[in-house]
Amino acid sequence: MPTISEESNEEIMRIAESLDTISKAIKKQADKLRDDPTRLEPALNILHKATLTPKGKIIITGVGKSYLISQKLAATMTSIGTRAISLHATEAVHGDLGIIDKGDCLLALSYSGETQEVIRVCEIIREWGDCWVVGMGKSIESPLGAMCDAWIECLVDEELSSNVCAPTTSSSLMLAMGDAIAVLLMQKRRFGPLDFARNHPGGFLGKQFQKSL
C-alpha cells in the first residue's frame, strides 16, 4: 500500500469522521421511525393523496441549500412516477405561485423552520385554503411548523463544522429522507421497470433498462 504523509492521513481521517457523523444521523432517523412509525404517517398520507389525481403534484420549495435539495427531490420523484416540481420560495411570490393547482401539496423545506421566504409562501397557500402544506425541518415547534398540515422531522445533533454551522449533516439527512419518501411513493403507485424505461431512455441507466426489456 502506498505511504502518505502524516498530515494527509489526518485530513483523510477527518473526512472519514465526517462521513461517520452523517451516517449516524441517518441511522438515528431510521431508529426514530422504527420506534414511532406514527410520526411520519400524516405527511405520507398527504403526499400520496395529493398525487392520486391525474394532475395532482407535489411542489417542493425552499431557498439556499434547501432549494437545491428541492431540485434534486423533484427530479427524483418525477423520474420514478410522482409528479413534482421545484419552486424557489423567492420567485414564488413574483408570479411562480401560478404553477400551484387546487389539491396540490406544498412540501416546504427549512431546517431551522424560520426561513421567512418559505414561511411567506406557506402563509399564502394557507390563505388559499385548497392545498396541503407539509414541512420538513428540525422541529414542528417553529414558525414554519405552525403553518403545516403535517411535519417531517429531520433533526441532527451537529453539523460537520460546528463553528460555522454550514448545512452539511442536516442537508444530507433531509436529502436522504426525501429520497426515501420518493421511493415509497413510487412503490405505492406500483411504478415499475417499464415505466422507468419510458421516463429515462437516455444515459447509462436508459441503455441498461432498454437492454433488459
The CATH superfamily turns out to be Glucose-6-phosphate isomerase like protein, domain 1
Output the number of helix runs. Answer: 8
Q: How many strands, which pairing sense, and closed or not: the largest β-sheet?
A: 5 strands, parallel
Based on the coordinates given, report the CATH architecture.
3-Layer(aba) Sandwich
The CATH topology name reads Rossmann fold
Cα separation of the termini: 43 Å
CATH class identity: Alpha Beta
Strand order of the largest sheet: 2-1-3-4-5
Model regions low in confidence, pLDDT < 50 over at least 5 residues: none
Shape: globular
| SSE order | HHEHEHEHEEHHH
Number of domains: 1
Which structural class is indicated by helix and strand composition?
Answer: alpha/beta
How many β-strand stretches? 5
- Alpha-carbon Rg, integer: 19 Å
* Overall pLDDT score: 93
The percent of residues in helical segments reads 40-55%
Strand content: 5-15%
Would you kindly provide a written description of the structure presented here, covering whatever features stand out?
The protein has one domain: Glucose-6-phosphate isomerase like protein, domain 1 (Rossmann fold, 3-Layer(aba) Sandwich), CATH 3.40.50.10490. The protein is built from eight helices and five strands. It is α/β, with parallel strands linked by helices and 213 residues long. 52% of the residues lie in helices and 12% in strands. Helix 1 crosses helix 6. The protein is globular, with a radius of gyration of 19 Å.
Strand and helix layout:
Elements: H1 6-35, H2 41-50, E1 58-62, H3 64-79, E2 84-88, H4 89-92, E3 105-109, H5 116-128, E4 132-137, E5 150-153, H6 169-188, H7 193-199, H8 203-212
Helix pairs in contact: 1-6, 3-6, 7-8
GO molecular function: carbohydrate derivative binding
InterPro entries: SIS_dom, SIS_dom_sf, SIS_Kpsf
Pfam families: SIS
